[in-house]
Amino acid sequence: MADIETLIKRAYSAFNKRDIDGALALMTEDVNWPKASEGGKVVGKEEIRAYWARQWSEFDPHVEPLAITEGDGDKVRVRVHQLVKSLQGDVLSDGEVLHEFTVKTGLIAAMDLGDEADPTAGPSAAFAHQPPVVEIRSLAPDDDATAFRTLNEEWITHYFTLEAKDRETLNDPVNSILLKGGLIFMAYAGAGAEAVGCVALIPMRDGVYELSKMAVSPHLRGRGIGRRLLQHALVQAKCLGAKSLFLIHLYESVGFRHVKPETLPPMPYCRDDVFMEMPLGEVRNVGHCPESASFGGAPIGERQ
Asked: Under CATH, what is the fold of the domain 2-127?
C-alpha cells in the first residue's frame, strides 16, 4: 500500500504543478480518465493531455489528497480537498470530493469521480461557474428533521456503514442532540429552500463539543457548502462558550489538528480511525455571535 500511496501522491503533485509529462508517466497507455470540467471520459494519455490543456485554459484547479484507503480488488479510494478557481482568481468551488483509482502493475489504469451520480451527464458540480445560493439556519425541536436524517443516511451508507449509534441519533435528533444542549444547522438552497447540507454540535463534557453528522447532498458536493457549514458551526461553538471541538475525520484545512484518540471522549463508531481537535482559543475573525433564543438549556442562534 505504501508504494500505491506514493504513486497517487506523485500524480496529484504533478497535476498541481501542471507537469503533464510527469503525471502521464504514472499511467498505463490505455488509462481511462473522467472529464470533470466537461462531462464524459477520455481514454489514453494523449487524450488526457488535450483535455487537461483545455481545462487549464478555463479553470485553475488544485487537488490535495487527504486520505488514501484500499478499496475492493485493485481499487484505491482517495478523499481530496479540491479548490477550483477561475483564471481571474474567483473561487468556484472549495470542498472535499472522492476519487477512485484503479491501479495495475504499479501504474494508474483509471480514475473515477466517486461523488458524481452520473459523471457522463455533464460537467462536475465543482466546475460550475455559479456557486449555489445557500442559507444556513438552526434546526429547532419542532422543525421537521427528516432531511437531517436522510442526508446523513445517504452520506454514511455511501462511505461507511450505518451503525446502531447513528440510527439512535438520526431517528431522534431532538432528544439525542438538541435537548442535551447541542445544535443542528441545516443548509438550504434554491427557490424551493431544498435542504442540501447539515452539521451538528454535540456536547461531550465541560466546554468540549463534537462536530458531527455533517453531510452534503450528492449533487452539490464540491461547491463549498460543507466548508460554509463548518465555519458557521465554529462561530456558533464560540458563542456557546465552547473551549474546543473535536471530530473523527478530515478538516485540517480550517484548523483542526490530529490528536491521539485517548485524549478525547470515547466514540461509539467502528469507523473512527482519524481523530482531530481544534482549541477554540485559536479561532480568530470567523464571525460574530447572533442574538440567540434557547431551549434545552443551550443558546440557539436565530435563523439567519
From this structure: Nuclear Transport Factor 2; Chain: A, (3.10.450)
Q: Structural domain boundaries of the chain?
A: 2-127, 134-301
Residues in the chain: 304
Q: Quick: pLDDT tens for 41-65.
A: 999 999 999 999 999 988 999 999 9
DSSP one-letter string for the chain? -HHHHHHHHHHHHHHHTT-HHHHHTTEEEEEEEE-TTTSSEEESHHHHHHHHHHHHTTEEEEEEEEEEEE-STTEEEEEEEEEEEETTS-EEEEEEEEEEEEEETTEEEEEEETT-S-TTSSS-GGG-SSPPPEEEEEPPTTS--HHHHHHHHHHHHHHS---HHHHHHHH-HHHHTGGGT-EEEEEEETTTTEEEEEEEEEEEETTEEEEEEEEE-GGGTTSSHHHHHHHHHHHHHHHTT-SEEEESS--GGGT-EE--GGGS-----TT----EEEEGGG--SS--PPPEEEETTEEEEPP-
Give the C-alpha separation, 72 to 143, whole Å. 40
| pTM listed for this prediction | 0.51
Which residue shows C-alpha cell 451508507? 157
Nearest residue to 16 (alpha-carbon basis) of 65, 87, 58:
65
The three cell numbers of residue 244 are 474546543
Q: How far is CA 193 from CA 107, 183, 186, 223, in A?
A: 45, 20, 11, 17
- Please check the confidence at residue 273 and state whether its pLDDT lies above 80: no
Q: How many CB atoms lie within 10 A of CB 211?
A: 24
Query: What is the CATH code for 134-301?
Result: 3.40.630.30
